């Protein structure tokens, strides 16, 4: 069965801390600042691997982390960047924010990549704080934490070729011999209850084949199981109509299924189709071939005969599928507009809240959070610099306007400070 949904947690690497260091040279009594910057944390990146066709590997694992950046060194050495974490997903994977459902990525093309959470910036070393008035700064920044997020993955069926046919025609058998997919196969109708996808590889090329439940009369109205899955193959570029050679009248079944496709949608009815008679290892199947070939020719459709079980004609058919696809245009796969993904919409935005239990205040906001984490509050110079930034952002004024008195406790996110102005 196709496993087509997963919920996972991704965490990008934290940035490395900046370093406070000074040059020590022979005969130079007082060297300048030489503390390097911390390395950037690694990103978590999703990449399309065309060889994959399910999300089943996310069943075993739900947490993925990128590497953290190293701390800055002396002699202006920047810390090494954290390693990116590249997570392979099958084509057709849609990634959403787990809580809000917001679309983050719609991955369709081979090797397409998208960064879902970004590594934290490395903190700057003390070299960055040198100025005309401060030649020997003792401050550095701490690295920022990497972004983290719960996301959902959904696999959208994107097949180049959709397999249609009556139950028992051998669709799943065919898929299993031409791809690594292992669908259930059995000698009764409606063995397949969920679509199966398989990737067919030939000489560095690949195509995706979708095996859907068998269709029967009334399928367009929801009889049987095929109905809900016809929508999936509406997006495929080519239909492979597989005929059950063991049936008493495969030609009548062929007409019937085409009728159902027409009744379901014009789009499906007009989709290019190739006709394939299966089970020609059986003598009765061979007997049907001339009539089927003649009918296909009359309709202007290519026709082939195979045995999925003995694999007679199968390789030739695959080569033909690639040829037919080459003649067809690529289907437009993007259904949803890609948003620009940002965790922080407006970084300088902040809010002040009076805490109910006592005389404290809390300031929150993306830039405030960043500053609270980045600053070594115990170091006077660093704290001074943070206060200058708060002044520029208008936070100090806003606190005064709100009625903050000297001596009050002010939380900058989780960092507790005493208001001194
Ligand atoms: N003799 C013969 N039997 C075949 C061939 N291909 C498939 N079969 C048999 O036909 C039966 C049905 O095969 P499936 O692959 O399950 O058929 P399906 O079209 O996927 O059926 P649904 O999932 O019910 O729609 C199984 O018993 C297969 O072994 C073939 O080339 N020759
Ligand atoms: Mg099947």
CATH topology of the largest domain: Rossmann fold
The biggest sheet, with number of strands, parallel, antiparallel or mixed sense and barrel status, is: 6 strands, mixed
CATH class of the largest domain: Alpha Beta
The strand count comes to: 18
Could you tell me the radius of gyration in angstroms? 32 Å
User: What class would the helix/strand composition place it in?
Assistant: alpha/beta
> Strand content of the residues, in percent?
15-25%
The low-pLDDT segments are 333-345
CATH architecture of the largest domain: 3-Layer(aba) Sandwich
The amount of helix comes to 10-25%
CATH superfamily of the largest domain, by name, is: P-loop containing nucleotide triphosphate hydrolases
- End-to-end separation: 65 Å
What is the residue-mean pLDDT, rounded to a whole number?
A: 87
Number of helices: 10
Helix and strand pattern? EEHEEEEEEEHEEHEHHEHEHEEHHHEE
Q: Which outline best applies?
A: elongated
Bound molecules: guanosine-5'-triphosphate, magnesium ion
Layout of strands and helices, then pairs:
Blueprint (H helix, E strand, L loop, with lengths): L4 E7 L32 E5 L8 H4 L2 E3 L19 E5 L3 E5 L5 E5 L5 E5 L30 E8 L5 E4 L6 H8 L17 E7 L2 E7 L15 H7 L4 E7 L5 H15 L1 H4 L3 E6 L4 H17 L3 E3 L8 H13 L24 E4 L6 E4 L1 H9 L5 H14 L1 H8 L6 E4 L2 E4 L3
The structure holds guanosine-5'-triphosphate and magnesium ion.
């Amino acid at each position: 069965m196709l496993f087509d949904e997963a919920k996972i947690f991704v965490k990008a690497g934290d940035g490395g801390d900046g370093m406070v260091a000074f040059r020590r040279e022979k005969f130079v009594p007082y060297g300048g600042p030489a503390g390097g910057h911390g390395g950037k944390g690694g990103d978590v990146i999703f990449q399309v691997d065309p060889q994959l066709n399910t999300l089943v590997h996310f069943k075993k694992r739900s947490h993925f982390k990128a590497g953290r950046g190293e701390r800055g060194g002396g002699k202006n050495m920047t810390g090494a960047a954290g390693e990116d974490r590249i997570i392979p997903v099958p084509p057709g994977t849609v990634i959403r924010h787990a809580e809000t459902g917001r679309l983050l990525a719609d991955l369709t093309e081979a090797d397409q990549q998208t960064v879902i959470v970004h590594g934290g910036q490395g903190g700057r070393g003390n070299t960055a704080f040198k100025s005309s008035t401060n030649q020997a700064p003792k401050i550095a920044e701490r690295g920022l934490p990497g972004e983290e997020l719960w996301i959902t993955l959904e696999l959208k069926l994107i097949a180049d070729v959709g397999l249609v046919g009556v139950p028992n025609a051998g669709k799943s058998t065919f898929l299993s011999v031409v791809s690594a997919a292992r669908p259930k196969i059995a000698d009764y109708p409606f063995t397949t209850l969920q679509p199966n996808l398989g990737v067919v590889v030939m000489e560095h090329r690949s195509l995706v084949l979708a095996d859907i439940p068998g269709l029967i009369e009334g399928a367009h109205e929801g009889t049987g199981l095929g109905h809900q899955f016809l929508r999936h193959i509406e997006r495929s570029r080519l239909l492979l109509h597989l005929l059950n050679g063991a049936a008493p009248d495969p030609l009548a079944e062929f007409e019937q299924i085409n009728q159902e496709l027409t009744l379901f949608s014009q789009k499906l009815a007009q989709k290019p189709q190739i006709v394939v008679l299966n089970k020609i290892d059986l003598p009765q199947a061979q007997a049907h071939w001339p009539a089927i070939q003649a009918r296909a020719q009359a309709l202007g459709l290519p026709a082939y005969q195979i045995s999925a079980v003995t694999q007679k004609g199968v390789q030739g058919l695959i080569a033909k599928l690639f040829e037919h696809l080459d003649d067809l245009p690529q289907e437009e796969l993007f259904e949803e507009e890609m948003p620009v993904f940002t965790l922080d919409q407006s970084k300088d935005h902040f809010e002040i809240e009076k805490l109910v239990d006592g005389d404290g205040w809390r300031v929150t906001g993306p830039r405030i959070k960043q500053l609270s984490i980045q600053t070594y509050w115990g170091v006077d110079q660093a704290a001074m610099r943070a206060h200058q930034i708060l002044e520029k952002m208008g936070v100090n004024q806003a606190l005064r306007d709100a009625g903050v008195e000297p001596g009050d406790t002010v939380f900058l996110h989780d960092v507790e400070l005493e208001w001194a102005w």
